[in-house]
């Protein structure tokens, strides 16, 4: 028997058939690292003295102007009248994932977003997990897929878009977004029931980037399967900041990803009140992150070097919080000082990146084992079992007819 090549392993495109392109907001100001800035930007927009001033602040596009009338985003009761006459309060900002690791906040108003992908908003709930296939970088060993419990924008720090694949096609954890029959084939071969969450954990552990699309080698050996599940569950827990795959008995606390006591990062020297661009640096000898005269340590080299889209995650995160924004623009409205919340977010991100970096050896070992002859199920075998090709309907969103959503000017639409 021969080792399975990239062409023999099934594509993620087939394992999770329904995919959605990234969101396209069309303007920078409706997204920010903190909700207070978004409320201040909204107040400035809606208090503009006249329509030309409001239009200049909006930063309109072909898809969105002050007079665009669009439906509400699913799950958000926002006005559907034109922005030209809007004087109400700011819609409550919601957390979103920008790239693989940066949590941002977004004003969930369809009038501000060029292409919002409402089909994703309909299925975003407490059961959902979004897999985001990353853009292929031949020179980078980055994982092929990132995961989020909140709605992802599908972008990367380098601006490369990725495909968004929800685990479930309907709200409430219903209708898994998996190739029909795949779980049954795996269950029969492994001698154990395979749940949708198991398949996602396996993808988190074993998916590998390839020029022709992300590949997912599927295991024959139960030992490989269980090793991959343990690795993948921890990966999902870290990517979702403890919102998914929590297991206190397994060291995965809900909504918390912390390093052991002696390894946790702390602020060793006070951070600047208002740090600016270019003040972030790393000292590998001291394992210290420096922001101006401020110091955070210990910060493992693996956390500093971890990249997404070819860009260091910590550098991208810092840049998003210190860019001044163009003078006179809504993006220029930012917190005047570095807050305690921002420091807490930085310490949490360092912990997540450190723990992810520690999984690299286990990922490499699993990949090595799966490259051995006869250890994986091929796409050819899945075609023989009737799992492939994928029915066309499984690549489209599921129908959602349980409720109505408000369209432009208060009219309702059935979906």
What does this structure look like?
The chain is an alpha+beta fold. The chain folds into two domains: 14-246 and 363-414, no CATH class; 261-362, no CATH class. Helix content is 28%, strand content 14%. It contains twelve helices and 18 strands. The protein has helices at residues 12-15, 35-46, 51-58, 118-122, 182-190, 196-206, 222-239, 301-305, 313-322, 340-357, 360-370, 379-384, and strands spanning 31-32, 94-98, 102-106, 130-133, 145-148, 163-166, 168-170, 174-176, 218-219, 266-269, 280-283, 288-291, 294-297, 307-308, 311-312, 376-377, 404-406, 412-414. The strands form seven sheets. It has a four-stranded antiparallel β-sheet with strand order 10-13-12-11, with no helix packed on it. Helix 6 packs across helix 7 and helix 7 (222-239) packs antiparallel against helix 11. The longest helix has 18 residues, at 222-239. The chain is globular and about 70 Å long. The mean pLDDT is 93.
């Amino acid at each position: 028997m021969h080792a399975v090549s990239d062409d023999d392993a099934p594509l993620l495109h087939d394992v999770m058939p329904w995919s959605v392109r990234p969101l396209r907001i069309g303007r920078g100001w409706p997204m920010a690292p903190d909700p207070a800035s978004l409320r201040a930007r909204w107040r400035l927009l809606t208090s503009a003295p006249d329509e030309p001033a409001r239009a200049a602040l909006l930063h309109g596009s072909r898809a969105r102007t002050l007079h665009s009338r669009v439906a509400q985003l699913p799950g958000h009761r926002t006005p559907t009248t034109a922005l030209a006459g809007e004087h109400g309060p700011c819609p409550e900002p919601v957390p979103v994932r920008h790239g693989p690791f940066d949590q941002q906040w977004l004003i969930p108003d369809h009038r501000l977003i060029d292409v919002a992908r409402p089909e994703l908003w309909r299925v975003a709930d407490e059961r959902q997990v979004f897999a985001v296939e990353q853009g292929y970088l031949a020179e980078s060993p980055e994982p092929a897929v990132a995961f989020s419990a909140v709605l992802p924008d599908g972008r990367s720090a380098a601006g490369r878009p990725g495909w968004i694949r929800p685990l479930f096609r309907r709200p409430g954890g219903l209708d898994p977004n998996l190739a029909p029959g795949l779980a049954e084939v795996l269950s029969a071969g492994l001698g154990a029931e395979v749940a949708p969450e198991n398949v996602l954990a396996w993808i988190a552990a074993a998916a590998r980037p390839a020029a022709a699309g992300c590949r997912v080698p599927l295991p024959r050996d139960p030992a490989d399967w269980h090793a991959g599940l343990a690795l993948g569950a921890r990966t999902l827990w870290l990517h979702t900041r403890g919102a998914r795959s929590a297991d206190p008995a397994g060291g995965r606390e809900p909504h918390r990803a912390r390093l052991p006591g002696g390894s946790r990062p702390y602020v060793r020297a006070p951070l600047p009140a208002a740090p600016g661009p270019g003040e972030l640096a790393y000292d590998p000898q001291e394992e210290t992150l420096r922001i101006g005269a401020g110091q955070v340590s210990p910060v493992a080299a693996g956390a500093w070097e971890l990249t997404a889209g070819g860009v260091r995650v910590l550098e991208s995160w810092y840049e998003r919080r210190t860019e001044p924004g163009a003078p006179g623009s809504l993006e220029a409205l930012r917190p005047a000082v570095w807050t305690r919340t921002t420091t807490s977010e930085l310490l949490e991100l360092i912990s997540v990146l450190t723990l992810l970096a520690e999984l690299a050896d286990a990922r490499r070992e699993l990949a090595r084992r799966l490259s051995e002859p006869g250890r994986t199920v091929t796409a050819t075998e899945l075609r023989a079992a009737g799992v492939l090709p994928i029915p066309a309907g499984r690549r489209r969103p599921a129908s959602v007819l349980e409720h109505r959503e408000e369209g432009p000017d208060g009219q309702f639409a059935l979906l």
